Amino acid sequence: MPADGPPAPAPGPEVGELMLSDWHSHVGKLAGVGFLTIARRLPALVAQAVRLAWRADPRDTAVTMALSLLGGAFTAFGLLATTGVLSALFAAGPTPERVMAALPGLILVGVAAALRTLVQAGAGWAQSRLAPQVSRIAEERLYGLTSQVGLAAFDDPAFHDALQRARSRGVSMADEVVGTAINVMTAIIGIAAAAGVLGVLHPVLLPLLVLAVLPDAWAAVRSARMRYTTLYALIPASRRKWIISELLAERGPAAEVRSFTMRGFLLRMHDVVATAEQGVMLDLARRQTFARVVGETLGGTGTAAVYVALGLLLAGGAMPLAVAGTAVLAIRSGQTYLSNLMYATNRLYEEGLYFTDFLDFCADAENRVISGRPERAPESFERITAEDVVFTYPGSSAPALRGVSVHLDRGEVIALVGENGSGKSTLAKILSGLYDPDGGRVRWDDTDLADVDPDALRRNIAVIAQDHTRWPLTARHNITMGTDKGEPALLAAAEVAGADQVVAELPHGYGTLLDRRFKDGQELSGGQWQRIAVARGFHRDAPLLICDEPTAALDARAEHALFERIRRHADGRTVLLITHRLASVRYADRIYVLDHGEVVERGTHGELIRNDGLYADLYNLQAAAYSS
């Protein structure tokens, strides 16, 4: 009997990490941040910005700071000269005489204002020159590290989150932090000038002026903290939203999105994230508005107190009218500079949080960069040996390799076979220096790879991967990968791989851009890309050639032809072959069979068939499938 009540709604898309927590839940370290914390942190932020600016361009940095100081001096001089002007104008006597008496002071005020304008323009020019230079060196540092860290870092979710923060806001804030730090210093110089004048005129005015601006400072700091913590908490959702948007807008998945009518499903997933993100941002806007209203209300009260105090000083005869006029100008100037300081401080604090993400990521990435290895990378070998190799991917509880031992002799063709997840590709990456084992060791003859610079080692290894990159470059650069070995080497590698037939069909030959997103760009089929990738591996001309599922995108005829080419053109290279198609490994000198991260069998094809183990089972299953 059916249950009463309305039918259950259709289940929505599973979004996993998209379920958002409260805005503050991910950033407990910032929960207690207040104005004093920011004030203590400000010198360090300014120092970091100055160091970065100095590294970008010492001359422009020095010019900016020197002209900013000079502008503050002209500000103070102009305010003090104003006192003489007002005293002359407010003195007794005929107006023409008072104007003539004030004229020298007026000239000094005008000259000070003109010079201040000129030096501020010069400082602004030098500062604007710094911005693109700072951006360039920050990007160079970021991408220099991301392209150098160990490959295992990209299997670590925490590294991905840190990289997302550094790329999305951190690196773009480098030039902003430098510019804002300069603005902070300029505002401080201006405040010092106005404060010096106010201190000379009457000492009680300065603390009252500070009191008038503090509420605005509190509101700005609180607003900045709210925004940063909110955006920090939204990073996992923003990353997933970006991934979904790529699926909806990029050419790669476009065919399957349409074939499987995925549009509605992906839009619903996108809407789940966007709706949750919208709710969080609307709540942020409400809280920021409340903080600003409170700050501005209290700030207005403080400003009124300043002018009340000034009026009382005048009424009590503690201050002449001319001095009071100068004090008003100094107060207005001080308020302007204090407001600028609070705004710049707020900006610097908020930008500094993102900039710190960039610095923290760079520091973490530098720790992940392998350096200081003393041994020279061997250019060749007689035997490569892996002994009791253990490896676990970051965040995984189970090892991908468990005490694996293999060896490869010079000139041999060695095959790694096994079911998906058995550890074949992981072992290949360790043998090629892309991963460092957690336990055990890998040696080229007597050289332990743990003592060798991995970049130098990889120059002697060529990899033909199943998941090769389809570089948005010309066909030539897709094969040569930035090396310059000459035309004969390029043509020979393309011929061995059969890529010469692919290039022959391209409108501009090797100069054809292999990316249809650009004008005159061409797109290749999966099999054609595979041939380009194979040519890339042969062009490397390395003593160790690793072929990781190199025929996955080829038909049977092309696969057979490719393996024949590899055997014929090995030319003394050692070939490590990873494949699921066991017919291709029959002629290997030795076959290692992996299962759940362990080597369970080893031997030639004939020996393994006679052993009637896992290899024989897999081979017979494939043979039966082909013969049925």
What does this structure look like?
- It is a single chain.
- The two termini are 49 Å apart.
- This protein is 61% helix and 9% strand.
- It is elongated, with a radius of gyration of 35 Å.
- A hairpin with a 2-residue loop joins β4 (439-444) and β5.
- The chain has 19 helices and 10 strands.
- It has helices at residues 35-56, 58-90, 95-146, 157-170, 173-201, 205-233, 235-249, 254-259, 263-315, 321-368, 424-431, 454-458, 475-480, 487-497, 499-504, 526-540, 556-568, 605-611, 614-627; strands at 383-391, 401-409, 413-417, 439-444, 447-448, 461-465, 544-548, 574-578, 590-595, 598-603.
- The strands form 2 sheets. The protein has a 6-stranded mixed β-sheet with strand order 6-7-8-3-9-10, sandwiched between helices. The protein has a 4-stranded antiparallel β-sheet with strand order 2-1-4-5, covered by helices on one side.
- The relative contact order is 0.09.
- It has 628 residues and is an alpha/beta fold.
**Helix/sheet category:** alpha/beta
Radius of gyration: 35 Å
Q: Termini distance?
A: 49 Å
Low-confidence stretches: 1-32
What is the average per-residue confidence, as pLDDT, rounded to a whole number?
Answer: 78
- Lateral strand order in the biggest sheet: 6-7-8-3-9-10
Helix fraction by DSSP (H/I, runs of at least 4):
55-70%
Into which percentage range does the β-strand content fall?
5-15%
Summarize the helix and strand pattern as letters: HHHHHHHHHHEEEHEEHEHHHHEHEEEHH
Morphology call? elongated
Q: What's the total count of β strands? A: 10
Summed up, the helix count is 19
- What is the makeup of the main sheet? 6 strands, mixed
